[in-house]
Amino acid sequence: MAVLASGRGSNLQALMDAIAEGTLEADIVGVFSDRSKAVALQRARDAGIPARSLAPKAFASRAEFDAALFAAADEARPDLIVCAGYMRLIDAAVVDARPGRIINIHPSLLPEFKGLHTHQQALDAAATEHGASVHFVTADLDGGPVIAQARVPVLPGDDADTLAARVLEREHPLLVETVRWLAAGRIALAEDGIQVDGVASPPLQLAANRRFA
Length: 213
What we know:
Rossmann fold, 6 helices
């Protein structure tokens, strides 16, 4: 897989750790970023993984930047592209050229709370449950078919930071387990949603043992 990240790369690290531990049969063939100082790039380099950044301001349009970034990723010949804390919208032409090959992890129970500041959105809505989702990427912001979710309670006294920390603890195993199933060929994108083992399925749910129920 190729991984796209804009920040600290904690989800990238979770994938690298699972591979190193032998619990995820996959390889990361490259890490790519829109920010040259993203910690994710250094995490990759420290692990001997090729890492590269491109500056959006060097391109005349978002479409040109996306085309260049994904062309760079394509050079590594990934089967799957994982957006793990990648904070940019992706041009529709790039997505349409790679159907079912790009996934994203988003810190909410989609379709609730798309976009940014999801934890504060959940608090403002007085939600009693929050979490994270992995979905196939489409041109619709955080709108592609949801593959899997992990749920956490919203507790009395929570603020955005405490809620974010609780969600992050579940994000990492959620992403690893989803990639594990994708690598095994058990999950596929269909016209009307996702298929698990060839059968239409609602989003998978991560259990307390960090496996899908």
